[in-house]
Design brief:
4 domains
Length: 203
């Protein structure tokens, strides 16, 4: 009986692993696929009854109870605790961040000017970088002065445009993979580049 139970548990573990791989393949959230797979398994005729040690069941229950209590419950009650204690941001971090962005953009713009005369620097590239860092310097300086609404609107429009383009790239990449024209490894490498490009967008 114990060997039969172990075989069933091994089969369940294998099924969970297959579902995890399938969820990544078809781009479906893993919990959804797991619930569907478990429901289908429950209605499968001829499934044997599996009896587990009550101590093991209690251990599994306590594990999930601790996780729910320490993560979910505390996460849900934390905002209420913060409000009750009257804790608020003092804004110093935001001011320091703006100051850092202004100074780094200024230094980047200066460095572009210093290197623009080098033989290995392409003139078109220098022009693009000069415009980029000049824009960033003006934008962050305006935000520091409390007058960055115009720049924020333009920045948000730019970010939206770039995200739409990246989404189109992801769609084309997925189509290539599904058609068998590229491997999963190639898709993952290109996806990493797209992820990096998306994270570079200023929020």
């Amino acid at each position: 009986m114990e060997s039969h139970t172990e075989l069933v548990l091994f089969g369940l573990l294998l099924a969970v692993t297959v579902l995890a791989v399938a969820a990544r393949w078809i781009r479906v959230p893993y919990p959804i696929l797991l619930v569907l797979g478990g429901s289908a398994l429950g209605f499968t005729p001829g499934m044997p009854d599996v009896s587990l040690d009550p101590d093991l069941v209690l251990l599994i229950f306590l594990t999930y109870a601790v996780i729910v209590t320490t993560l979910v419950l505390q996460g849900l009650t934390l905002p209420a605790v913060v409000r009750a204690l009257g804790l608020e941001e003092d804004g110093l971090d935001s001011e320091e961040e703006l100051h850092a962005r202004v100074q780094t953009a200024r230094r980047a713009r200066e460095r572009v000017e210093e290197l623009s005369g080098e033989e290995w620097v392409n003139a078109d590239t220098a022009v693009r970088l000069r415009g980029l860092y000049d824009w960033r310097h003006r934008r962050f300086s305006a935000q520091a002065d409390g007058d960055g609404a115009h720049y924020d609107e333009r920045s948000q429009a730019y970010q939206r445009l770039v995200r739409e383009i990246i989404a189109a790239e992801r769609g084309a990449l997925l189509a290539l993979r599904n058609e068998g024209r590229i491997t999963d490894e190639v898709m993952r490498r290109v996806e990493r580049d797209l992820d990096l490009e998306e994270t570079r967008l200023e929020t």
